[in-house]
Amino acid sequence: MSVDVARVADNVAALRARLAELGGAGVALLAVTKTFPVEAAAAAIDAGCDGIGENYAQELVAKSDGLLAIIPRPDVHFIGHLQSNKVRSLVDVVTVWETLDRPSIIEELARRAAGATVMVQVNVSGEASKSGCTPAAAESLVSTAIEHGLNVVGLMTVGRAGDVTAARLGFRELRTLADGLGLVQCSMGMSDDFEWAVQEGATQVRIGSALFGQRVRP
Ligand SMILES: *Cc1c(COP(=O)(O)O)cnc(C)c1O
Fold it and tell me: Residue 52: CB within 6 Å of ligand 1?
């Protein structure tokens, strides 16, 4: 797959402009590169994205040598469902683990990557198909992660698709939860809902299709 570098740069510029209009000039822009080649990640970083988001452990492992070769010290966030048996293969490339959602994964990560920078993923929409802990469990997981020496910087969520009002309320709930726990960062908002996420206090948005076009596989 060839990457249209100029188009990625245009898309990054347009997103930055929109973020600024929404009062989110300081919001970090994470380029979600799942299914796209490492050249797409490089184009996004060259165009001023702050980091890269990847969902699938196997795909990220396959790309990691390329990423590390092509981008100086890439900031790589793992944003997919994390299985304990995959942690070890990812520790050399992941810089921020956004999807801690249960004690077992916290324990495994603390064992493999002492002091790693993490977020706790919260399922604010309550959809059974989504990963993430319940809002009620967030405080205890954050405490567990801190007790295990991890550097907890914030909370992450995926908004409810296809329902703007519900998505927005979910983003508001995540911001309130993070504030209550003294956490600065909220990773929330994707191509279709980042505007509401920013208005509700996102500090980082995760953008894929609006930068690179539609993905062929999900
Ligand atoms: C795929 C994905 C994104 C990016 O989605 P787009 O709609 O392509 O912007 C962001 N966050 C997570 C967790 C994802 O899985």
Answer: no
Ordered structural domains, the chain, with CATH: 5-211 (3.20.20.10)
Task: Check if 119 has its Cβ closer than 6 Å to any atom of ligand 1.
Answer: no
Task: Tell me the per-residue pLDDT of 150-165, one tens digit each, with 9 for 90 and over.
Answer: 999 999 999 998 888 9
- Report CA(80)–ligand 1 centroid distance (Å): 9
CA distance 196 to 23: 12
For 127-136, write each residue's pLDDT tens digit: 888 999 999 9
Q: Is the CB of 189 under 6 A from ligand 1?
A: no
Ligand 1 centroid from CA 183, angstroms: 22
Cβ–ligand 1 distance for 131 under 6 Å, the answer no
Query: Long-range contacts for 58-63 (Cβ within 8 Å, ≥24 apart)?
Result: 58/86, 59/34, 59/35, 60/90, 60/93, 60/94, 61/89, 61/90, 61/93, 63/33, 63/37, 63/38
pLDDT at site 9: 97
